[in-house]
Design brief:
three-stranded antiparallel β-sheet, 39% helix, alpha/beta, binds 3-methyl-2-oxobutanoic acid, eight-stranded parallel barrel, TIM Barrel, binds zinc ion
C-alpha cells in the first residue's frame, strides 16, 4: 500500500516574505481557499508576531478555511508563541511552528551561545507551545549545514518534549540531494523516538536543488514536505508544490501518494502569480507557459501520432486545458466567467461586470486575450483604494525629439496637472508625477518591464521598486501601453507612502 505524504504549503509565509510579493488579508484568504481546494494538508498562514497584518491574516484564514491544519510560525520566544496561539484561536485544527538555528553558524554567530544552551531553548519552546496547542512542529533552522549527531540529539529531545512534526530545513539551499537524503536517514536510524513524530523537509533552491533534495528526503523517510506554489520564496525560492506532487504522481513505483487534486494546479499557479505580481518563468516545470509546448517539427509529429512519445504528463492532468475557448472581443460574460473559474477565481456578479467592461476594452486593443490578461483584469481594481490616481497621461517622444509628458493626477479628489521633460517618455512621465505631488525625494531602485506573452499588441507588466526615506516600496501595473504601465506602476508605489 502507498504511503501518504502530507503537503505543507508555505506560500503565505515563506513565499510571501519575498520583497514585492506581499498580499493583503483579502488576497491571502483567496489564496488559502484555493489551497484548500487544491487539497493541501497544512497551510502556513503567517508569522503573527511579525506584524498586525500577519496576525490578522492568520485569524482570518483560520476562520475562512475548514479542512487543512492552519499553522503559525514563531521564534523560540515565549511572546511569539503566545501571539501565535492567540492568532490561531479560530482554527479548527491549529499548529504552532516554533524552532531555532542548530548549525554552528547560527549557534555561534547568530545566538552567541553554546550547543547545550540552544538544546535547552529548543526543548523549552516546544514545551511552551504545548501549553496552547497539541500539534507542535519544531524547525531546526539551518539543519542542512548542522552536525548530524547534534541535530539528532536536538530532534530526540524536542520529540520527547512533545513535538508532533520535526522540520529539517536546508535553510540556505546548500545540501546535495545525496547529503540531504543521508541526513534524513541518519535521523531515522539514530533518533530512538523518531516514530513518534512526522519528519518534514523544507528545502530552499539556492543551488537549484530544492525539489531534488525534497524527493531524497521523502525517499529516506520524511512524510511531510514544505513547499510553495510556483516555488516562490526568499532568494531563489522554496521547493515547488506542483513539482513534488507531479513527481510522485508520475513515479507510482515510489509508493507515495498525496491529497493534491492535480487538475487544480494550473489555476492556483496562475492565481498566485497574478496576486503576487510574480511572473512564472516560461520554462518552469509543470506550470511554465512552455511546459507543454512542442516547437520542434520532430516533437510535434511525434506528439500528434501518440502524445506519450514526448509527453510524460497529460497537460489536462495539471489543469492545462488545450481546448480552451479563445477569448476575443466577441466573447460574452459566460465565457469570461468560465475562464476565470478554471483559473480559480469566482467573482460575484457586480465584480464580474466590472472585469467584463475592462475585458472588452482590452479586447479592442488586443486580438487574443490570454490567462494572464484575464487574471490581470480580475485584480485590477486593487487600485481603487488609491488616494493618488493617474487620470491623464500624454507623452511625445521619438528619435531626435526631447521627450515630454503631461499628467493629471487626482489627489484625494483634487485634480492637479503638470508637464515635464525627460531623457525618455517614462522618465518624463515620472518627473511630471513628482512635480504634481510636489515631492521628488524618492528614487527608483529597480524597474522591470515584461511582456505577458507575445506579439506587439501584448500587455506589458511593469514592476518598480522605489526608495523613500530609507524604505523600499513596490509598485505594479499592466497595460498594453508600456509607458502608461510604467507611470501607473510608479503611482502604485507612491500610494504606499505618500499620505
Ligand atoms: O528556511 C527556514 O529555515 C525556514 C524556517 C523558519 C522554517 O523558513
Ligand atoms: Zn524557509
Amino acid at each position: 500500500m502507498a504511503d501518504r505524504l502530507f503537503i505543507f504549503d508555505t506560500t503565505l509565509r515563506d513565499g510571501e516574505q519575498v520583497p514585492g510579493c506581499q498580499l493583503n488579508s483579502v488576497e491571502k484568504i483567496e489564496v488559502a481557499k484555493a489551497l484548500e481546494g487544491l487539497g493541501v494538508d497544512v497551510i502556513e498562514a503567517g508569522f503573527p508576531v511579525s506584524s498586525p497584518g500577519d496576525f490578522n491574516s492568520v485569524v482570518e484564514i483560520s476562520k475562512a478555511v475548514t479542512w487543512p491544519v492552519i499553522c503559525a510560525l514563531t521564534r523560540a520566544v515565549e511572546k511569539d508563541i503566545e501571539v501565535a496561539a492567540e492568532a490561531l484561536r479560530y482554527a479548527k485544527k491549529g499548529r504552532i511552528h516554533t524552532g531555532i538555528g542548530v548549525s554552528d553558524y547560527h549557534i555561534r554567530y547568530k545566538f552567541n551561545a553554546t550547543q547545550d544552551e540552544i538544546l535547552e531553548r529548543a526543548i523549552a519552546c516546544v514545551k511552551y507551545a504545548k501549553r496552547f496547542v497539541e500539534d507542535v512542529e519544531f524547525y531546526a533552522e539551518d539543519a542542512g549545514r548542522a552536525d548530524n549527531a547534534y541535530l539528532a540529539k536536538v530532534i530526540e529531545a524536542v520529540i520527547k518534549a512533545g513535538a508532533t512534526v520535526v522540520n529539517i530545513p536546508d535553510t540556505t539551499g546548500y545540501c546535495l540531494p545525496g547529503q540531504y537524503g543521508e541526513k534524513i536517514n541518519y535521523l531515522v536510524e539514530n533518533v530512538t523516538n523518531i516514530h513518534k513524530a512526522v519528519i518534514s523537509t523544507h528545502c530552499h533552491n539556492d543551488l537549484g536543488m530544492a525539489t531534488a533534495n525534497t524527493i531524497q528526503g521523502v525517499l529516506n523517510g520524511a512524510r511531510q514536505v514544505e513547499v510553495t506554489i510556483n516555488g516562490v520564496g526568499e532568494r531563489a525560492g522554496n521547493t515547488s508544490l506542483e513539482e513534488v506532487a507531479m513527481i510522485f504522481k508520475s513515479h507510482k513505483s515510489a509508493g507515495i501518494v498525496t491529497n493534491i487534486n492535480s487538475r487544480k494546479i494550473y489555476g492556483v499557479s496562475r492565481m498566485v502569480s497574478s496576486l503576487m505580481n510574480m511572473p512564472v518563468q516560461p520554462n518552469k516545470a509543470i506550470v511554465g507557459r512552455n511546459a507543454f509546448a512542442h516547437s520542434s517539427g520532430i516533437h510535434q509529429d511525434g506528439v500528434l501520432k501518440n502524445r506519450e512519445s514526448y509527453e510524460i504528463i497529460d497537460p489536462k492532468d495539471v489543469g492545462v486545458d488545450d481546448n480552451t475557448i479563445v477569448l476575443t472581443a466577441r466573447s460574452g460574460r459566460a465565457a469570461l466567467k468560465h475562464r476565470l473559474h478554471i483559473l480559480g477565481v469566482d467573482l460575484e456578479q457586480e465584480k464580474l461586470d466590472k472585469v467584463y467592461t475592462g475585458f472588452l476594452k482590452l479586447a479592442d486593443r488586443k486580438k487574443d486575450i490570454n490567462d494572464d490578461d484575464v487574471l490581470m483584469l480580475a485584480g485590477k481594481d486593487r487600485t481603487e483604494t488609491h488616494r493618488i490616481k493617474l487620470e491623464h497621461l500624454q507623452v511625445t517622444s521619438g528619435i531626435g525629439l526631447q521627450s515630454m509628458a503631461s499628467v493629471c493626477l487626482n489627489l484625494s479628489g483634487v485634480r492637479r496637472c503638470e508637464a515635464a521633460a525627460g531623457n525618455g517618455p517614462v522618465d518624463a512621465g515620472i518627473k511630471a508625477v513628482k512635480k504634481a505631488i510636489s515631492n521628488s525625494d524618492m528614487t527608483i531602485q529597480e524597474f522591470l518591464i515584461q511582456a505577458l506573452s507575445k506579439g506587439s499588441d501584448d500587455t506589458g507588466k511593469v514592476h518598480i521598486q522605489v526608495e523613500y526615506k530609507g524604505n523600499m516600496y513596490y509598485g505594479f501595473s499592466a497595460n498594453t501601453d508600456i509607458i502608461a504601465a510604467s507611470v501607473e506602476a510608479f503611482v502604485d508605489a507612491i500610494n504606499k507612502f505618500i499620505v
